[in-house]
Amino acid sequence: MGQIERRLQELGIQLPPIPNSLGNYLPTRRAGNLVYTSGQGSRAIIGYVGGDLTIEQGYAAAREACLHCLACLQAELGTLDNIDHVFKVLGFIRSAPGFTLQPAAMNGASDLLVAVFGDAGRHARSAIGVNELPEGIAAEVEMIVVVRE
């Protein structure tokens, strides 16, 4: 068990199984020392943040989506210890009309990454509000990580 997997265990976090794809695409794709994840969702949290869901539920949805990204990265790399640092996180929050606190919801993903990777988890980020997401999920997250060569 690697250092990052031990850290997950200390935090009481178990990575979910790799989610089933909703189409003809890969869960990750590598280019040199960069690994991109496909968008992963919060399949257990359905609804509109700022409508039928609270910001706290949006935070939990972004965190869950990020855990799915980490599961995909672990499958690709064998161990999360091969990640040098998280480079960029892109999040989509399914938002009720007039809701503008997408960054607060996306903190669920960002806070998780810093808790797991420490300073190497700090990243550039975008948090975008959208009308709809696949299957009604509340959040979708994708990541780019830099891996050790």
Furnish the topology, listing elements before pairings.
Blueprint: H1 3-10, E1 28-31, E2 34-37, E3 40-41, H2 55-77, E4 83-94, H3 102-117, E5 124-130, E6 139-147
Parallel strand pairs: 4-5
Antiparallel strand pairs: 1-2, 2-6, 3-6, 4-6
Helix pairs in contact: 2-3
Describe this protein's structure.
Strand 1 and strand 2 form a beta hairpin. This protein is of the alpha+beta class and 149 residues long. It has one domain (3-11, 28-147): RutC-like (60s Ribosomal Protein L30, Chain: A). The longest helix is centred in the middle third of the chain and has 23 residues, at 55-77. It is globular and about 45 Å long. Helix 2 (55-77) packs across helix 3 (102-117). The model has no long low-confidence stretch (mean pLDDT 96). The chain is built from 3 helices and 6 strands; from the N terminus they run H-E-E-E-H-E-H-E-E. The protein has helices at 3-10, 55-77, 102-117, and strands at 28-31, 34-37, 40-41, 83-94, 124-130, 139-147. Strands 1, 2, 3, 4, 5 and 6 form a 6-stranded mixed sheet that branches. The chain is 32% helix and 26% strand.
